[in-house]
Each structure stands twice: as structure tokens, then as C-alpha cells.
Specification:
The chain has 15 helices and 9 strands. It is an alpha/beta fold. It folds into 3 domains: 192 residues, P-loop containing nucleotide triphosphate hydrolases (Rossmann fold), CATH 3.40.50; 65 residues, no CATH class; 89 residues, Arc Repressor Mutant, subunit A (Orthogonal Bundle). The protein has a 5-stranded parallel sheet with strand order 2-5-6-1-7, sandwiched between helices. The termini are far apart. 33% of the residues are buried. It binds adenosine-5'-triphosphate and magnesium ion. The site of adenosine-5'-triphosphate has 16 residues, from helix 2 and helix 9.
């Protein structure tokens, strides 16, 4: 139990995944879903507890939390995990590490390796220790697309891939990420570091029983009723994003006089006023903005002469070469604002809430 009454347990999915590992059918899975669809919640509140109950040693690590020096941060987390699991002793590695704040509980805080080479050796050693252990190890690696954003991580990614490959019978891994583009760079392009390493699984959407669960908990918590059918309808309208429906229900808990429709309107209003989206938008060049708008409006013929003439007119310039649009598109991809679909020329907005923001704050306003 996670202790979070609002959490809707996804035990069947967790069992299915663990079953695939236990039977030896899979060694690595890649879960893709857009932002805020419940990946992290599933890893932490369903996958980890189940695996632990079944005697797996389980480590959750999010690459989003590490700013620089990903390899060191991950290796330290792995070492700390091995120590906590009783697989090795901290003292054995102490000489390789400096700046240990006295009495610190987590060794990751304020600690670093004496030199990068030692991080590499330690990664290998700890992985080998984990693989030799009688308990199997499950690594839950969240936001892995971050690794593809920085060339400095290449070395680390290669080392990680090798270690996972060598120890795949005993160390299983779930990768998740929200950027389709970032994951494609890691797993699907033929020159990608993890090309064909993990099996891609779409992350299933939450269904009606999730919404009924929220309605039940709402009633328990407040003594008031919420119409589960209407809630389900709203959930669908909002793109089945669990985070949004939960914010909506929480809002109704706090404001007893709010109707479902009013709460929904307020929530949409909040997205429109979100500063983060406005900043992202402001950071884009005029051409990037026009490209984003065209993608939101599903105008996929971005490179056609007609579209280029139209854009040029808009920008008050004579002509707009294909290469200029291509370069704007590449910038947007690099910033993970847009991604591309395998069909040539089809693009999409990576964050569905940003897409909604553009629809409301940019397109409807004009
Ligand atoms: N099983 C669930 N039961 C109840 N609420 C959920 C569940 N899954 C997700 N949520 C709600 O959705 C929110 C977003 O989920 P989560 O952070 O796991 O998404 P994510 O896919 O990891 O998003 P991101 O890509 O932005 O990290 C949670 O904070 C929670 O409010
Ligand atoms: Mg997450």
C-alpha cells in the first residue's frame, strides 16, 4: 500500500511486467507516454512495492534530478542502493570518494568520486555485485530521454548499456520517458545507444474504473457525491490525463460550492495562465512560433511552396527557403517542443498541455 488514498492501484499491469521479467521473456522494457500520464506514479506506487514483495531489490532513479555529472550521480545512487540492500559494505569504496559530510544518511549528498575513472570502475563493480546476488535486481530508470540531450553522457550510456547487457539475466530494467523524440534518439534510431535493447511498450491509458475510484474516494473524503459518469466524460475531454482529473477533483474537495464544470473551467484557465508555457513560447523565434502554430492546427505540409509563401508573407520577407524551415524544425526538436512521427513530415507537440495552451492563448486569442 502506498498510503495515498487517491492512488488507483495498477496491480494487473505491474504483475504483467514483473511476469515478463520472471519468465525471462524480457530483460528491458521501455514505457513511453506523454507528460503527466502516470508513469512515475506507476513505477513508485505499483511496480516498486510489488517487486519488493516478490523479493526483488528495486532501485528507482530519475535522470531529471541530476543536473550535471549523470554518471557519477547514478553510480553513487547504485552504490548506496547496494549498501542499503546489504550486498556490499560502504567502507570498501570509501577511499574512492571525497567530501563526505559527517553523519549524512544518504551518501549521495555532497559526495563525489575522486576521479571519473573511479566512477566507471565502481559502476562496473557494483553492477557485478548486484548480478551475483541471490535476489534479482530491478532498475526503474525514469526520464531516460534526458541522457540523449547531452553528448557528454555518451560514455556513460555506452557503459550502462554494456553492463546491462552482460548482466541481463539478473538485472532487469524499465526505462520510461515522456519525450517521444528523446526516446527515439535513445532506442529506435539505428545509431542510437540502446538500439533494440529494450522492448517498447505503450503505457496503457487509465480507464473508467480509475475515474470511479476517484469519485469513491471523493465521497469518502467529503461525504459529498460526484457524478462518476460526468467525471469520466470530462476525463476523456481532457485527453485522459490523470494529473488533470486529479487536480480537478482536489479542487472540488477544497471548494465545496464548485460544480464539475466550473472546476474544469478554472483548471483550463490555470493552464492558459501558466507562466512556464508563456516563457517557452517567448523563447521561440517568429518562424519557430509559426511552425508550432501550423503543427497545432495540423497543417502538415510545412515545406510546400504554398505554405512557405504564406509564412514568408506573414513574416514580411520575400522568400522562405526550405532549409530555413528545416533548421527551425530541428531547433524545436532539440528543445523537445516537438517530435516527429515516422511518416515523413508529420510532427506533433510533445507536451499535450502546451498544445492546449497554444490553442487557448495563441490561436483562440487571434
Ligand atoms: N494510478 C494513479 N492513481 C491516481 N492518480 C494518478 C495515478 N497515476 C497518475 N496519477 C496522477 O497523475 C499525476 C501525474 O502522474 P506522474 O507524475 O506519474 O506522470 P508522469 O507520466 O511521470 O509525468 P511526467 O512525464 O511529467 O513525469 C500524479 O501526480 C497523480 O496526481
Ligand atoms: Mg514522471
Amino acid at each position: 500500500m502506498s498510503g495515498d488514498i487517491w492512488h488507483y492501484p495498477r496491480l494487473a499491469l505491474a504483475k504483467q511486467v514483473l511476469g515478463m521479467f520472471e519468465s525471462g521473456l524480457s530483460t528491458a522494457l521501455v514505457f513511453f507516454a506523454p507528460r503527466r500520464m502516470g508513469k512515475t506514479e506507476f513505477l513508485l506506487k505499483d511496480m516498486r512495492p510489488l517487486a519488493t514483495r516478490q523479493h526483488w531489490h528495486t532501485l528507482y532513479f530519475s535522470f531529471l534530478d541530476t543536473t550535471s555529472n549523470t554518471k557519477e550521480a547514478f553510480t553513487l545512487a547504485l552504490l548506496e542502493f547496494a549498501v542499503e540492500s546489504g550486498i556490499t559494505k560502504w567502507g570498501k569504496f570509501q577511499s574512492r570518494i571525497k567530501k563526505i559530510s559527517a553523519g549524512a544518511v544518504g551518501i549521495q549528498a555532497g559526495v563525489e568520486f575522486r576521479d571519473p575513472q573511479q566512477a566507471k570502475i565502481t559502476l562496473k563493480e557494483v553492477m557485478t555485485l548486484l548480478a551475483k546476488n541471490k535476489h534479482k535486481t530491478l532498475l526503474l530508470l525514469d526520464e531516460v530521454q534526458v541522457l540523449s540531450q547531452d553528448n557528454d553522457n555518451r560514455d556513460f550510456v555506452a557503459a550502462l548499456r554494456t553492463m546491462l547487457d552482460v548482466n541481463k539475466d539478473c538485472i532487469k530494467v524499465i526505462f520510461t520517458g515522456s519525450s517521444r523524440e528523446g526516446l527515439r534518439r535513445m532506442f529506435s534510431k539505428s545509431n542510437a545507444p540502446f538500439f533494440h535493447f529494450g522492448q517498447n511498450l505503450p503505457f496503457p491509458e487509465l480507464e473508467e474504473d480509475f475515474v470511479s475510484h476517484l469519485a469513491d474516494v471523493f465521497q469518502q473524503a467529503t461525504g459529498r457525491k460526484i457524478n462518476a459518469k460526468q467525471l469520466w466524460q470530462v476525463f476523456g475531454d481532457m485527453g485522459k490525463v490523470p494529473q488533470l482529473i486529479r487536480s480537478l477533483v482536489e479542487r472540488m474537495v477544497l471548494h465545496p460550492n464548485l460544480s464539475l464544470q466550473q472546476a474544469r473551467q478554472q483548471l483550463m484557465q490555470d493552464i492558459t495562465e501558466d507562466r512556464e508555457y508563456a516563457l517557452t513560447w517567448e523563447s521561440c523565434s517568429i518562424l519557430e512560433r509559426l511552425a508550432i502554430k501550423a503543427i497545432v492546427l495540423d497543417e502538415t505540409e510545412l515545406f510546400s511552396e504554398e505554405k512557405r509563401n504564406q509564412l514568408a508573407l506573414f513574416m514580411g520577407i520575400e522568400t522562405l527557403p526550405v532549409s530555413t524551415i528545416q533548421s527551425a524544425i530541428r531547433t524545436l526538436q532539440r528543445k523537445s517542443i516537438i517530435g516527429s512521427l515516422p511518416e515523413r513530415g508529420a510532427y506533433y507537440i510533445d507536451d499535450p498541455n502546451f498544445k492546449r495552451w497554444i490553442e487557448q492563448a495563441v490561436i483562440e486569442e487571434h
